[in-house]
Amino acid sequence: MPGPGHNHFAREHYEAIATVMQSAHKHNWQAICEKLADMLKADNRGFRRERFLKACHPDNNVRAP
After folding, report:
1. What is the CB neighbour count within 10 angstroms for residue 45?
2. Residue 5 has pLDDT above 70, yes or no
3. Chain-centre distance of CA 18, in angstroms?
4. What pLDDT shows up at residue 42?
5. Ranges of each domain in the chain
6. What is the pLDDT of residue 49?
7. Does position 2 have pLDDT exceeding 60, yes or no?
8. Which residue of 5, 40, 47, 56 lies most exposed, with the fewest beta carbons within 10 A?
9. Computed from CA positions of residues 58, 59, 64, 65, in that sequence, does the dihedral angle turn out positive or negative?
């Protein structure tokens, strides 16, 4: 992982991952979402973990505020 102040991921990456997670909900979906959220938070201290977890839900809009 990069050092402080250097992010490898952009908002578009987070949205793409959430879109994939919407279709991966059959196999331990929640644990996978949480592990990804932890990884993304480690990459970006401004990452909004709860927003990402909400966006991963199959019934939600990935770009929801």
Report:
1. 9
2. no
3. 5
4. 85
5. 29-65
6. 93
7. no
8. 5
9. negative
Could you read off the pLDDT of 14-55 as tens digits, one per residue? Answer: 888 887 777 766 667 788 888 888 888 888 889 999 999 988
Nearest to 4 by CA among 36, 42, 39: 42
CA distance 35 to 64: 21
Of the CA atoms within 13 Å of residue 62, those in its CB half-sphere come to 13
∠ CA 16-42-45, rounded to 5°: 90
The rounded distance, in Å, linking the Cα atoms of 65 and 56 is 13
Q: Pick from 12, 10, 7: which is nearest to 63 by CA?
A: 12
Which of 54, 56, 36 lies closest to 44, judged by CA? 36
Q: Identify the residue whose tokens are 């196999």.
A: 27
CB neighbours of 64 closer than 8 A, spacing ≥ 6?
A: 51, 54, 55
